[in-house]
Design brief:
Two copies of one chain form a homodimer.
Chain A: E1 2-5, E2 10-11, E3 17-18, E4 22-28, E5 38-41, E6 67-68, E7 73-74, E8 79-83, E9 98-99, E10 104-105, H1 115-128, E11 134-140, H2 142-153, E12 158-164, H3 172-186, H4 203-217, H5 220-226, H6 245-258, H7 263-275, H8 286-291, E13 297-303, H9 311-322, E14 327-333, H10 341-344, H11 346-357
Parallel strand pairs in A: 5-8, 5-11, 6-7, 11-12, 12-13, 13-14
Antiparallel strand pairs in A: 1-4, 2-3, 4-8, 9-10
């Protein structure tokens, strides 16, 4: 994993200054002599920069099946960069980093974070690598928002885009779910207005936030086929539940997540998604924003069973593209796994991404 | 509102005895001489027996537009009974009632409640009114489960059924949502293992449970059209949210609910829904259960946008009916309002119910 430290304080989208800013990133493949084969991959809310294994780090990444030599995002042809989002806690600066003024973690003193800040700080990494225009920017989920935030601020930044199970603006149903996730975290008595400690962690709030996340990431149809009404024996039955396999599945996922992700970082990134609207500096005219970019084409992928970023979100992006000269294709895939399908259903997601990049 | 006190302790479905049991109910219309025009209406999780206004209680009921003279459930033709579910807190015995052994509310000492107990206790009210067989049993949501629980235990109890946005067994997605709602309540520090008091109420847990309920009761499409990304000014912005109208809408609904419904009753009824499976005493063969009943026909209504009781639930009931001699019709309605549509979209729900009963 590489680290890049910004030379200047970051002027944030909502009008504050943040310093110091370090971003963690990984790369795959080689930049060609023309510096024209770079792909920037933005992530969803919780993954880090380790999208796939490499010589430096042979451990499997979160998109292992999608990225690598001969894979749909082919690292023998492209120079691929994946950056841990600003505000996250997996190597990049975020609310859990040290505030130099206090010598303690920033927590709620961290500046209000916008998706635009994730994009703008990441763009400095790309420039640092000697790239002035990306061949393609790819973003699933929150990463698709970040891709649009990049184009909004740096219209010449990319020639092509793959937007996956994402949106040009947060819809009210997704806002409701994320708002409730954050409420679960900050109403946990251990939250302590952001002053939680290792021995006093908002476990209960993080557990519920993750469970609600899983509910919004998957689909009823998948769970019907996968769990039906099978009983569980992994956990003791509680007042509230733990009778059925679907409950133990959620519990196991939540327990894993609690120790992995900082609650404050989660709240900041989640809120940034709600705030995001790619067209807010263009009188809510997304076509106008897109028209000013160097984008030549776009591939927009979505899934019928996605609750959090439903097909209507991807359709809205495609409709805006219709009014521009940007060639684009919207594919509505039949995956069962809802919003998470891009991580799992490589059989459906791999071929169109491979074809588009070829 | 009438009250009926069971003569004997209720032997519960899960093998306990409950006494005393009082059920609150209301009626509309007149029982005919043949006692053949009775309709029993079971409710969803939270409503009480006051389904519609009457001379005794002129206040509007929860299904005012559906029930009354000349309405789809026509009280000039039918004698309609609506009973507050056992376990609820709106007049009938439930976990918030006094436990005679302790002189305090039952709370978690209340016997484990099953949907079958709601049906069996309600059947005693029907018999008390001199009715041996219902013309029709109607149930929306949890009420549709209760209707099947009635037929499962008393196969001769009804000739016709209207099952609305309901299921013959809880599906894993709905279980996940309800399990998380209960978790929010019982992990609230004020829950106190059920020993909450008026001055120490699990407000935070009930608020989150209700918000998650609303998320599962409505649809993304409705909220997109209704709220889009409109800002709100009703509540102060918090760490977690309150920027958008959809958030203030949820907050207002939650605040109203907190004082209206007992947390313990909520947990008991919610858990009973998860446990319910209409075919569990018939080797999971729902057709076998239905075949043993006096049912002559059934109307099954569902909504495309329902997340909690998706159309696949109603289709499963219809498929089971296909193997029986019971005439039945499944209507998939185009309402925007998701699971709650039966309460709101009377234009779509009224006509088929009127036609079926005529």
């Amino acid at each position: 994993m590489h680290k890049f430290k910004l030379k200047q304080p970051l002027q944030t989208w909502r009008g504050e200054a943040l310093s110091p800013v370090t971003l963690a990133y990984e790369t795959w493949g080689e930049l060609n002599a023309e510096r024209s084969n770079a792909i920037l991959l933005f992530t969803g809310l919780s993954p880090g920069a380790h999208a796939a294994s490499s010589e430096d780090d042979p451990e499997s990444g979160w998109w292992e099946a999608m990225l690598g030599p001969g894979k749909p995002i082919d690292s023998t042809r492209f120079f691929v960069i994946c950056i841990n989002s600003l505000g996250s806690c997996l190597g990049s600066t975020g609310p859990d980093s040290l505030n130099p003024a206090s010598g303690k973690p920033w927590r709620l003193d961290f500046p209000e974070l916008a998706i635009e800040d994730i994009a703008a700080s990441s763009w400095q990494v790309v420039q640092h690598l000697g790239i002035t225009q990306l061949h393609c920017v790819i973003g699933p989920s929150m990463g698709g928002m970040t891709a649009l935030a990049l184009l909004k601020q740096f219209p010449q930044s990319a020639r092509h885009m793959i937007s996956i199970s994402s949106a040009a603006a947060a819809n009210p149903f997704a806002i409701a779910i994320r708002s409730l996730q954050r409420e679960a975290i900050v109403t946990d008595p251990n939250w302590q207005n952001g002053h939680y400690s290792d021995s006093c962690w908002p476990i209960s709030g993080m557990r519920m936030a993750r469970k609600l996340g899983m509910i919004s990431y998957r689909s009823a149809l998948e769970w019907q086929q996968r769990f039906d009404r099978q009983p569980q024996s992994q956990f003791a039955t509680t007042t509230y539940g733990m009778n059925f396999q679907v409950e133990s599945y959620l519990e196991a996922h939540a327990l894993k997540f609690i120790g992995q992700f900082d609650p404050c970082c989660y709240v900041y990134l989640s809120r940034a998604m709600d705030w995001f609207d790619a067209s807010d500096r263009h009188d809510d005219d997304l076509s106008a924003m897109l028209s000013q970019t160097a984008l030549q084409s776009a591939l927009i992928l979505g899934v019928h069973t996605d609750l959090l970023f439903p097909l209507s979100d991807q359709q809205a992006l495609a409709v805006a593209m219709d009014k521009t000269g940007i060639r684009h294709e919207l594919l509505a895939l039949d995956s069962l796994q809802g919003h998470d399908a891009f991580l799992i259903d490589i059989d459906r997601f791999g071929p169109p991404i491979h074809r588009y990049l070829a």
